[in-house]
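Lab notebook, design round three. We kept the backbone fixed and only want residue identities now. Task for the bench partner: fill in a sequence for the structure below.
Input structure tokens:
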């Protein structure tokens, strides 16, 4: 009887503890502004909210305001086209929010085709100007989708040529270009660059202090797994310029899938990474719940 009572008491205390913990992790119905701001400001990891994927029902500038309200120190976004750069620069300065990175060159046209290298150079010149305006030091570039009749080796060689061509421009303007490999199992079938190995080889061949990797842990998980092992290789080789994350499956925030991000974020921190980690994920339920799950993943 005594053993039963002790087990019952232990079970009730664990349940009570979980009940008390849940609001602090996954939100309450009425948080004060001060409570909301503590969500993103109290983490060891510095997170950058992807405002293309969070608060998609709001105007773009309001998404930046929501980022500040949740206490996150930075945003990231995709193409420059269609963005009011002076307004973004003014608002981020007013709110004390940084622009961690934006996309300077997307999937199409691919830089893996020499026919597009002039346009690629022009886009990088434009990105350097925009980055100064936004007080931003990083810009993502994408290799491109498969080209019929061209081998992967040839396409990668063309990517190296393109990056070597623009590297002096990036260096002159102190803008680091971060090359992002994708995954072809779920999101980007037919893309020419995926996995850490080929991307590290490209960056090492370009050999510029201002050409690195946008190391998206979501894509890496799907492509190759062993996140901590490969992350160690990337950071020790100094080829990583930026980290992004999302859980898998679903591409939602940490805590919704199979990745134990507490372990992965600790590994990055222990290896000396202090840059921003982009939250390129779609909130599963709502943004406050997603933010609390992100904060919970940063506990170790």
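Proposed sequence:
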């Amino acid at each position: 009887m005594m053993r039963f009572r002790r087990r019952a008491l232990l079970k009730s205390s664990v349940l009570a503890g979980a009940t008390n913990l849940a609001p602090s992790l996954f939100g309450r119905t009425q948080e004060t502004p001060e409570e909301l701001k503590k969500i993103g400001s109290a983490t060891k990891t510095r997170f950058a909210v992807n405002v293309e994927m969070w608060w998609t029902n709001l105007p773009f500038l309001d998404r930046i305001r929501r980022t500040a309200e949740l206490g996150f120190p930075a945003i990231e976004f995709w193409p420059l086209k269609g963005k009011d750069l002076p307004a973004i620069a003014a608002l981020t300065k007013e709110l004390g929010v940084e622009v961690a990175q934006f996309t300077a060159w997307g999937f199409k046209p691919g830089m893996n085709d020499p026919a597009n290298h002039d346009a690629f150079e022009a886009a990088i010149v434009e990105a350097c100007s925009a980055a100064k305006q936004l007080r931003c030091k990083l810009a993502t570039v994408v290799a491109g989708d498969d080209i019929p009749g061209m081998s992967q080796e040839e396409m990668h060689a063309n990517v190296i040529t393109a990056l070597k061509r623009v590297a002096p421009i990036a260096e002159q303007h102190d803008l680091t270009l971060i090359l992002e490999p994708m995954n072809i199992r779920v999101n980007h079938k037919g893309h020419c660059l995926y996995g850490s190995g080929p991307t590290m080889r490209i960056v090492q061949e370009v050999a510029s202090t201002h050409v690195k990797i946008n190391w998206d842990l979501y894509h890496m998980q799907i492509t190759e797994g062993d996140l901590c092992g490969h992350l160690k290789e990337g950071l020790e080789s100094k080829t990583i310029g930026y980290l992004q994350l999302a859980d898998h499956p679903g591409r939602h925030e940490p805590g919704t899938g199979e990745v134990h991000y507490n372990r992965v974020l600790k590994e990055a921190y222990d290896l000396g990474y202090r840059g921003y980690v982009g939250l390129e994920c779609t909130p599963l339920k709502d943004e406050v719940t997603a933010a609390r799950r992100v904060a919970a993943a940063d506990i170790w």
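Keep this in mind before ordering anything: DSSP finds eleven helices and eight strands in the chain.
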